[in-house]
From TrEMBL:
Main location: endoplasmic reticulum
GO molecular function, one term: ER retention sequence binding
Gene Ontology cellular-component annotations: endoplasmic reticulum membrane
Family listed: Belongs to the ERD2 family.
Name this polypeptide is given: Uncharacterized protein
Organism: Solanum commersonii (Commerson's wild potato)
GO biological process: protein retention in ER lumen; protein transport; vesicle-mediated transport
Amino acid sequence: MESEWLSVLSKNVIPFAALALLIHPSTSHLFVNRVFWTFCAYLKAASALPQLRVMQNTKGNGGDQI
């Protein structure tokens, strides 16, 4: 269980946090708020990828069956 958590942490959280520190929007908000907002946007975008993969795989196997 612990190795699974470390895998998720090392593959998702740490790279997105580093990317958010480097690339974030320029707004009038505090720096920390901009970085956290960007981190959440990156994490949300990446979390949708497995769902898109499943949708693409089921598209060729009959379509609209849920």
